[in-house]
Design goal:
The protein has 3 helices and 21 strands.
Length: 360
Protein backbone atom coordinates (compact mmCIF):
# COMPACT_ATOMS: atom_id res chain seq x y z
CA UNK A 1 0.00 0.00 0.00
CA UNK A 2 2.84 2.27 0.93
CA UNK A 3 4.62 1.54 -2.34
CA UNK A 4 1.46 2.35 -4.27
CA UNK A 5 1.31 5.79 -2.61
CA UNK A 6 4.93 6.50 -3.56
CA UNK A 7 4.22 5.53 -7.18
CA UNK A 8 1.24 7.94 -7.41
CA UNK A 9 3.29 10.78 -5.93
CA UNK A 10 6.10 10.13 -8.40
CA UNK A 11 3.73 10.21 -11.36
CA UNK A 12 2.14 13.48 -10.13
CA UNK A 13 5.57 15.09 -9.70
CA UNK A 14 6.66 14.06 -13.18
CA UNK A 15 3.48 15.55 -14.63
CA UNK A 16 4.19 18.90 -12.93
CA UNK A 17 7.74 18.93 -14.30
CA UNK A 18 6.57 18.19 -17.87
CA UNK A 19 3.87 20.88 -17.67
CA UNK A 20 6.36 23.41 -16.33
CA UNK A 21 8.82 22.64 -19.12
CA UNK A 22 6.08 22.93 -21.75
CA UNK A 23 5.02 26.31 -20.33
CA UNK A 24 8.61 27.56 -20.38
CA UNK A 25 8.99 26.43 -23.98
CA UNK A 26 5.89 28.44 -25.02
CA UNK A 27 7.18 31.53 -23.30
CA UNK A 28 10.45 31.40 -25.18
CA UNK A 29 8.79 31.27 -28.64
CA UNK A 30 9.82 34.47 -30.42
CA UNK A 31 7.55 36.60 -32.62
CA UNK A 32 9.35 36.61 -35.98
CA UNK A 33 6.65 38.47 -37.94
CA UNK A 34 8.06 41.48 -39.86
CA UNK A 35 7.53 44.96 -38.40
CA UNK A 36 5.15 47.32 -40.18
CA UNK A 37 6.77 50.58 -41.28
CA UNK A 38 4.73 53.52 -39.97
CA UNK A 39 4.79 57.30 -39.73
CA UNK A 40 4.44 58.40 -36.11
CA UNK A 41 3.45 61.81 -34.80
CA UNK A 42 3.17 63.29 -31.33
CA UNK A 43 -0.04 64.87 -30.06
CA UNK A 44 0.19 68.61 -29.50
CA UNK A 45 -2.43 71.01 -28.19
CA UNK A 46 -3.91 73.64 -30.49
CA UNK A 47 -4.56 76.87 -28.61
CA UNK A 48 -6.74 78.27 -31.40
CA UNK A 49 -6.01 80.99 -33.91
CA UNK A 50 -6.86 84.66 -34.09
CA UNK A 51 -9.06 84.14 -37.16
CA UNK A 52 -12.04 81.85 -37.54
CA UNK A 53 -11.35 78.92 -39.91
CA UNK A 54 -13.99 76.45 -41.03
CA UNK A 55 -14.01 73.60 -43.53
CA UNK A 56 -16.08 73.54 -46.70
CA UNK A 57 -16.47 71.92 -50.10
CA UNK A 58 -16.14 73.57 -53.51
CA UNK A 59 -18.93 73.33 -56.07
CA UNK A 60 -19.83 75.11 -59.31
CA UNK A 61 -22.00 78.19 -58.84
CA UNK A 62 -24.22 77.09 -61.75
CA UNK A 63 -25.08 73.41 -61.51
CA UNK A 64 -28.16 71.33 -62.37
CA UNK A 65 -29.34 67.75 -61.93
CA UNK A 66 -31.33 67.01 -65.07
CA UNK A 67 -34.41 64.78 -64.86
CA UNK A 68 -37.57 64.04 -66.82
CA UNK A 69 -41.26 64.33 -66.00
CA UNK A 70 -42.25 61.15 -67.81
CA UNK A 71 -41.66 57.45 -67.22
CA UNK A 72 -40.01 55.36 -69.90
CA UNK A 73 -36.93 53.43 -70.99
CA UNK A 74 -33.85 55.41 -71.99
CA UNK A 75 -33.41 55.01 -75.75
CA UNK A 76 -30.07 56.73 -76.19
CA UNK A 77 -27.59 58.92 -74.35
CA UNK A 78 -25.79 61.30 -76.70
CA UNK A 79 -23.13 62.58 -74.27
CA UNK A 80 -20.65 61.18 -71.78
CA UNK A 81 -19.05 62.52 -68.62
CA UNK A 82 -16.59 65.30 -69.45
CA UNK A 83 -18.30 66.41 -72.67
CA UNK A 84 -18.90 70.12 -73.24
CA UNK A 85 -22.50 70.90 -74.18
CA UNK A 86 -24.31 73.95 -75.50
CA UNK A 87 -27.57 75.43 -74.27
CA UNK A 88 -30.46 73.45 -75.79
CA UNK A 89 -28.27 70.57 -77.01
CA UNK A 90 -29.96 67.13 -77.03
CA UNK A 91 -28.49 65.04 -74.21
CA UNK A 92 -30.76 62.03 -73.91
CA UNK A 93 -33.97 60.55 -75.33
CA UNK A 94 -36.57 58.52 -73.46
CA UNK A 95 -38.88 56.07 -75.23
CA UNK A 96 -41.97 58.07 -76.20
CA UNK A 97 -44.18 55.48 -77.92
CA UNK A 98 -47.11 56.25 -75.60
CA UNK A 99 -46.75 59.99 -76.12
CA UNK A 100 -46.50 59.54 -79.90
CA UNK A 101 -49.73 57.51 -79.92
CA UNK A 102 -51.43 60.15 -77.80
CA UNK A 103 -50.22 62.90 -80.13
CA UNK A 104 -51.63 61.04 -83.14
CA UNK A 105 -55.01 60.76 -81.39
CA UNK A 106 -54.94 64.48 -80.59
CA UNK A 107 -54.18 65.37 -84.21
CA UNK A 108 -57.15 63.27 -85.34
CA UNK A 109 -59.35 65.02 -82.77
CA UNK A 110 -58.21 68.39 -84.08
CA UNK A 111 -59.16 67.46 -87.67
CA UNK A 112 -62.59 66.31 -86.49
CA UNK A 113 -63.09 69.44 -84.38
CA UNK A 114 -62.04 71.71 -87.26
CA UNK A 115 -64.56 70.06 -89.63
CA UNK A 116 -67.36 70.39 -87.07
CA UNK A 117 -66.42 74.02 -86.39
CA UNK A 118 -66.42 74.87 -90.12
CA UNK A 119 -69.95 73.48 -90.54
CA UNK A 120 -71.17 75.19 -87.38
CA UNK A 121 -69.69 78.51 -88.51
CA UNK A 122 -71.42 78.26 -91.91
CA UNK A 123 -74.77 77.49 -90.23
CA UNK A 124 -74.29 80.39 -87.82
CA UNK A 125 -73.57 82.87 -90.61
CA UNK A 126 -76.46 81.62 -92.74
CA UNK A 127 -79.05 81.73 -89.93
CA UNK A 128 -77.85 85.17 -88.85
CA UNK A 129 -78.68 86.50 -92.33
CA UNK A 130 -82.03 84.64 -92.35
CA UNK A 131 -82.91 86.05 -88.93
CA UNK A 132 -82.15 89.58 -90.12
CA UNK A 133 -84.58 88.98 -93.03
CA UNK A 134 -87.19 87.56 -90.64
CA UNK A 135 -86.86 84.16 -92.37
CA UNK A 136 -85.71 82.38 -89.18
CA UNK A 137 -87.00 82.43 -85.65
CA UNK A 138 -85.11 83.52 -82.55
CA UNK A 139 -85.18 79.93 -81.25
CA UNK A 140 -83.51 78.61 -84.41
CA UNK A 141 -80.81 81.30 -84.22
CA UNK A 142 -80.18 80.56 -80.52
CA UNK A 143 -79.76 76.82 -81.23
CA UNK A 144 -77.38 77.46 -84.11
CA UNK A 145 -75.41 79.96 -82.00
CA UNK A 146 -75.05 77.43 -79.15
CA UNK A 147 -73.90 74.73 -81.55
CA UNK A 148 -71.37 77.16 -83.07
CA UNK A 149 -69.95 78.09 -79.62
CA UNK A 150 -69.66 74.41 -78.59
CA UNK A 151 -67.83 73.52 -81.83
CA UNK A 152 -65.45 76.43 -81.26
CA UNK A 153 -64.78 75.30 -77.67
CA UNK A 154 -64.13 71.69 -78.77
CA UNK A 155 -61.61 72.89 -81.35
CA UNK A 156 -59.81 75.02 -78.75
CA UNK A 157 -59.77 72.08 -76.31
CA UNK A 158 -58.24 69.80 -78.95
CA UNK A 159 -55.52 72.38 -79.67
CA UNK A 160 -54.68 72.66 -75.96
CA UNK A 161 -54.44 68.87 -75.73
CA UNK A 162 -51.92 69.00 -78.57
CA UNK A 163 -49.89 71.57 -76.64
CA UNK A 164 -49.84 69.18 -73.68
CA UNK A 165 -48.76 66.25 -75.87
CA UNK A 166 -46.00 68.37 -77.42
CA UNK A 167 -44.80 69.31 -73.94
CA UNK A 168 -44.60 65.61 -73.02
CA UNK A 169 -42.61 65.02 -76.20
CA UNK A 170 -40.23 67.67 -74.92
CA UNK A 171 -39.82 65.73 -71.67
CA UNK A 172 -38.81 62.68 -73.74
CA UNK A 173 -36.06 64.64 -75.50
CA UNK A 174 -33.88 65.98 -72.69
CA UNK A 175 -31.80 69.03 -73.54
CA UNK A 176 -29.10 71.03 -71.77
CA UNK A 177 -30.53 73.92 -69.71
CA UNK A 178 -27.35 75.95 -70.19
CA UNK A 179 -23.89 75.67 -71.70
CA UNK A 180 -21.47 73.69 -69.54
CA UNK A 181 -19.83 70.32 -68.93
CA UNK A 182 -21.43 66.96 -68.14
CA UNK A 183 -20.00 66.03 -64.73
CA UNK A 184 -22.04 62.96 -63.82
CA UNK A 185 -24.26 60.30 -65.38
CA UNK A 186 -26.73 58.41 -63.19
CA UNK A 187 -28.38 56.11 -65.77
CA UNK A 188 -27.54 53.97 -68.79
CA UNK A 189 -29.32 53.24 -72.07
CA UNK A 190 -32.07 50.69 -71.50
CA UNK A 191 -32.68 51.68 -67.87
CA UNK A 192 -36.07 52.89 -66.71
CA UNK A 193 -36.31 56.65 -66.13
CA UNK A 194 -38.86 57.83 -63.56
CA UNK A 195 -40.26 61.34 -63.02
CA UNK A 196 -37.95 63.47 -60.86
CA UNK A 197 -35.13 60.90 -60.98
CA UNK A 198 -31.68 62.51 -61.64
CA UNK A 199 -30.32 61.40 -65.00
CA UNK A 200 -27.41 63.71 -65.76
CA UNK A 201 -25.52 66.47 -63.97
CA UNK A 202 -24.31 69.53 -65.86
CA UNK A 203 -22.09 72.27 -64.45
CA UNK A 204 -21.04 75.60 -65.88
CA UNK A 205 -17.29 75.89 -65.17
CA UNK A 206 -15.47 79.11 -64.48
CA UNK A 207 -17.33 80.30 -61.39
CA UNK A 208 -17.06 78.34 -58.13
CA UNK A 209 -18.29 78.70 -54.58
CA UNK A 210 -17.57 77.14 -51.21
CA UNK A 211 -20.28 75.85 -48.89
CA UNK A 212 -18.99 76.08 -45.33
CA UNK A 213 -20.59 75.22 -41.99
CA UNK A 214 -20.09 77.75 -39.18
CA UNK A 215 -20.82 76.91 -35.51
CA UNK A 216 -23.57 78.79 -33.71
CA UNK A 217 -21.09 80.53 -31.43
CA UNK A 218 -19.57 82.36 -34.42
CA UNK A 219 -22.42 82.76 -36.92
CA UNK A 220 -23.59 86.17 -35.65
CA UNK A 221 -20.20 87.66 -36.61
CA UNK A 222 -20.43 86.47 -40.24
CA UNK A 223 -21.84 89.16 -42.56
CA UNK A 224 -22.66 89.16 -46.27
CA UNK A 225 -20.13 90.79 -48.65
CA UNK A 226 -17.27 90.03 -46.24
CA UNK A 227 -13.95 89.42 -47.99
CA UNK A 228 -12.39 86.08 -46.95
CA UNK A 229 -9.40 83.91 -47.81
CA UNK A 230 -10.01 80.37 -49.06
CA UNK A 231 -7.20 77.85 -48.74
CA UNK A 232 -7.37 74.89 -51.17
CA UNK A 233 -5.04 72.21 -49.83
CA UNK A 234 -5.04 70.06 -52.99
CA UNK A 235 -3.68 73.01 -54.98
CA UNK A 236 -1.60 74.55 -52.20
CA UNK A 237 -3.13 77.91 -53.06
CA UNK A 238 -5.03 80.71 -51.36
CA UNK A 239 -7.85 82.38 -53.28
CA UNK A 240 -9.91 85.42 -52.36
CA UNK A 241 -13.64 85.07 -51.93
CA UNK A 242 -16.73 86.94 -50.80
CA UNK A 243 -19.59 85.86 -48.54
CA UNK A 244 -22.83 85.94 -50.57
CA UNK A 245 -25.27 84.02 -48.35
CA UNK A 246 -25.56 83.41 -44.61
CA UNK A 247 -28.18 80.93 -43.48
CA UNK A 248 -30.35 81.85 -40.50
CA UNK A 249 -31.37 78.26 -39.67
CA UNK A 250 -29.40 75.17 -38.68
CA UNK A 251 -32.41 72.84 -38.69
CA UNK A 252 -31.11 70.62 -41.48
CA UNK A 253 -27.36 71.06 -41.00
CA UNK A 254 -26.72 69.46 -37.63
CA UNK A 255 -26.65 72.59 -35.50
CA UNK A 256 -24.26 74.49 -37.78
CA UNK A 257 -25.10 77.31 -40.18
CA UNK A 258 -24.47 77.20 -43.91
CA UNK A 259 -22.40 80.04 -45.37
CA UNK A 260 -21.86 80.43 -49.12
CA UNK A 261 -18.62 82.00 -50.34
CA UNK A 262 -18.13 82.84 -54.05
CA UNK A 263 -14.52 82.56 -55.23
CA UNK A 264 -12.82 85.16 -57.37
CA UNK A 265 -11.91 84.04 -60.88
CA UNK A 266 -8.34 82.76 -61.08
CA UNK A 267 -6.08 80.52 -63.14
CA UNK A 268 -6.13 77.81 -60.46
CA UNK A 269 -7.24 74.36 -61.65
CA UNK A 270 -10.25 74.22 -59.34
CA UNK A 271 -12.56 71.20 -59.52
CA UNK A 272 -15.93 70.61 -57.90
CA UNK A 273 -15.71 68.49 -54.77
CA UNK A 274 -12.34 69.79 -53.57
CA UNK A 275 -12.11 70.53 -49.86
CA UNK A 276 -11.23 74.02 -48.73
CA UNK A 277 -10.67 75.99 -45.55
CA UNK A 278 -12.41 79.36 -45.31
CA UNK A 279 -10.65 81.91 -43.10
CA UNK A 280 -12.95 84.69 -41.90
CA UNK A 281 -11.32 87.98 -40.75
CA UNK A 282 -12.93 87.82 -37.31
CA UNK A 283 -11.54 86.81 -33.95
CA UNK A 284 -12.52 83.29 -33.01
CA UNK A 285 -14.38 83.07 -29.71
CA UNK A 286 -13.17 79.50 -29.14
CA UNK A 287 -9.88 79.83 -27.24
CA UNK A 288 -10.00 76.50 -25.35
CA UNK A 289 -6.91 74.31 -25.89
CA UNK A 290 -7.78 71.26 -27.94
CA UNK A 291 -6.10 68.16 -29.31
CA UNK A 292 -6.11 68.05 -33.11
CA UNK A 293 -5.01 65.09 -35.27
CA UNK A 294 -4.99 64.58 -39.06
CA UNK A 295 -8.20 63.14 -40.49
CA UNK A 296 -6.15 60.55 -42.40
CA UNK A 297 -4.98 59.01 -39.08
CA UNK A 298 -8.54 58.23 -37.93
CA UNK A 299 -9.66 54.58 -38.12
CA UNK A 300 -13.36 53.82 -38.69
CA UNK A 301 -15.11 50.65 -37.58
CA UNK A 302 -18.87 50.99 -38.04
CA UNK A 303 -20.00 53.82 -35.76
CA UNK A 304 -16.72 53.77 -33.83
CA UNK A 305 -13.70 55.96 -34.55
CA UNK A 306 -10.21 55.54 -33.20
CA UNK A 307 -6.50 55.88 -33.84
CA UNK A 308 -3.51 53.54 -33.54
CA UNK A 309 -1.13 54.58 -30.78
CA UNK A 310 2.38 53.36 -29.95
CA UNK A 311 2.70 51.08 -26.91
CA UNK A 312 5.75 50.84 -24.63
CA UNK A 313 6.76 47.60 -26.38
CA UNK A 314 6.74 49.44 -29.75
CA UNK A 315 3.56 47.77 -31.03
CA UNK A 316 0.36 49.22 -32.45
CA UNK A 317 -2.48 49.73 -29.99
CA UNK A 318 -5.95 50.79 -31.20
CA UNK A 319 -7.46 53.55 -29.06
CA UNK A 320 -11.16 54.50 -29.46
CA UNK A 321 -11.84 58.25 -29.57
CA UNK A 322 -14.66 60.73 -29.28
CA UNK A 323 -14.24 63.35 -32.00
CA UNK A 324 -15.44 66.93 -32.28
CA UNK A 325 -15.22 69.70 -34.87
CA UNK A 326 -13.28 69.47 -38.12
CA UNK A 327 -10.86 72.22 -39.09
CA UNK A 328 -9.37 71.84 -42.55
CA UNK A 329 -7.58 68.47 -42.71
CA UNK A 330 -7.61 68.02 -38.92
CA UNK A 331 -10.24 66.85 -36.45
CA UNK A 332 -10.58 67.63 -32.75
CA UNK A 333 -10.21 64.79 -30.21
CA UNK A 334 -12.57 65.32 -27.27
CA UNK A 335 -11.51 62.22 -25.34
CA UNK A 336 -9.31 59.16 -25.72
CA UNK A 337 -6.00 60.86 -26.51
CA UNK A 338 -3.86 63.22 -24.49
CA UNK A 339 -1.12 65.69 -25.30
CA UNK A 340 2.41 64.31 -25.89
CA UNK A 341 1.13 60.81 -26.72
CA UNK A 342 2.36 59.18 -29.92
CA UNK A 343 -0.04 58.02 -32.63
CA UNK A 344 0.37 56.47 -36.06
CA UNK A 345 -0.46 58.73 -39.01
CA UNK A 346 0.01 56.17 -41.80
CA UNK A 347 1.42 52.68 -42.35
CA UNK A 348 2.89 50.75 -45.27
CA UNK A 349 1.09 47.56 -44.20
CA UNK A 350 -2.04 46.43 -42.40
CA UNK A 351 -2.18 47.43 -38.75
CA UNK A 352 -3.83 45.49 -35.94
CA UNK A 353 -3.62 45.37 -32.17
CA UNK A 354 -0.19 44.10 -31.16
CA UNK A 355 1.43 44.49 -34.58
CA UNK A 356 5.14 45.26 -34.43
CA UNK A 357 5.98 48.66 -35.88
CA UNK A 358 9.09 50.43 -37.08
CA UNK A 359 9.33 54.19 -37.50
CA UNK A 360 9.98 55.37 -41.02
Amino acid sequence: MKNRKYIIMAIFGATLIITSCSSNEKKTVADNSPAVTVVVNTVSEDNGSSNLSVSGKIEATKSANISTRMMGYVDKIYVKVGDKVQNGQLLMSVNNADVSAKLAQVNASILEAEAAFTNAEKDFNRFTILFQKNSASQKELDDITANYNMAKARLESAKQMKNGANAQMGYANIRAPFSGVVTNKFINAGDMANPGMPLLEVESPGQYQVLALVPESEILDIKSNTEVTVQIKALQQNIKGKVTEVSTSSKNTGGQYLVKVVLEKSDAQILSGMYATVKFPITSKTKISSVMIPIEAVVHNGQLTGVYTVSQSNTALLRWLRLGRTNGDKVEVLSGLSANEQYIVSAEGKLFNGAKIANQ
